[in-house]
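In the current project phase, the collection of sequences with tokenised folds has grown. One resulting record follows, to show the layout:
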Amino acid sequence: MTDVAAPAPARPRKLKAQYEVVGDRLRVFRRRRQWFASVFMALWLTGWTVGCVVLAAVVVQQREVFMLLFAVPFWAAWFFVAAMLIGQLLNFEEFELDREGARHRAQALVVLSRRELPLWELRTVEVAAWQRSENSDSPPEVGLVFRTWGRPLRVFAGLPEAELRWLADQLTKVLDVVRRATQSADLPDMLAKSTDDAELPLQLAPSDMEVPPPSDCQWTLTESFQAIELTSRGRWSWGAVLGLLFINCFWNGIVCVFVAVASGLAPGGPQGWERLGLIVFLTPFVAIGLLMFVGLVMTIAEPVRRTSWRVSPREIECRWRWFGYGPRWTYPIDDIAGLDRIELDKSDGNKRGRLGSLRGSWPPATNTNDCPYRLSLIRRDNVEVCEIGGLTEGEARWIADQVQRSRLERFR
């Protein structure tokens, strides 16, 4: 009996997405609608709307703080379900791959995400599963993952497995065609290599050509005569802000109602020891609400956060700043030992970050930490000076290349 090579995945008879192939250009368009859930939410929202309108009329009529606090959780739930219903009915995904690169857009009334990737940055495409968050217990989502030099691009979650396999095969073929058609020698050799966990840690050295930063690089470079400084800033996330805003309104709204009762703002509240007992009972709930509020404030203030690394002849300095203020860490460099090399590695937590598998052994489920790489700056006596973490592989290679080029005499 002879072995036969596995055939290419067959095109399913029924496809959930729309496909358009023109030459070496592939376009995929897909609407993701769940009619049963949408009908249920619409019916629920209809009844809930009536209750919210009645509450609004009562608040306007009575003009009492207690009634306003009582109504806030109901109104927050209305907005949350309305946003989910709009997302169920109006969401779509669009993806294009051609000689220019890849473009992806997700929209539901407003643009939810948009990303463009140059062709050189695309590495592989595969079917995989991922968790929405690292600590989530929800079932993994299965879709296509484009491995890039920056953050991976995850698309078309929820399509049938057979269709995902076939689509991954089609995208791989188109990617090979456009790569051959646009083959260029203008990129460093290291970008053609793949870094596997088994190869790490990996010593990095400057190539003949400068390593370009990935398209989604969060770091900017500032170079002076005495030092080189790398700075990144936090990014605004509508999903995180709106999610935390809903949780705060719902949780803290309910807690504020009970606090109002305990403090005597509501008529007929408890007195004496009953009031004291209610205050003690509410203490942990108030503490949780305060933590939620702090999380909301920090998420809103994320765009003003700055993280900087400054490499100078005498020391390496790291700073976290909000509005110009924040902690600072300094790592002195020994004049005798000096810096010897920079190594690329993955954080230990991410090496062990596999979440098992979905439906047996396929596809592997991974966490959503998109920046697992770190750089270790090591002295000549083989002692680590410091590490720069939270990087994509492209960011790590670009930073290492820039540091070594700017201060090359210190790595000899």
In short: The CA atoms of residues 266 and 274 lie 15 Å apart. The radius of gyration is 27 Å. The chain has three domains: 12-184, 189-227+312-411, 236-304. Confidence is low (pLDDT under 50) at residues 350-365.
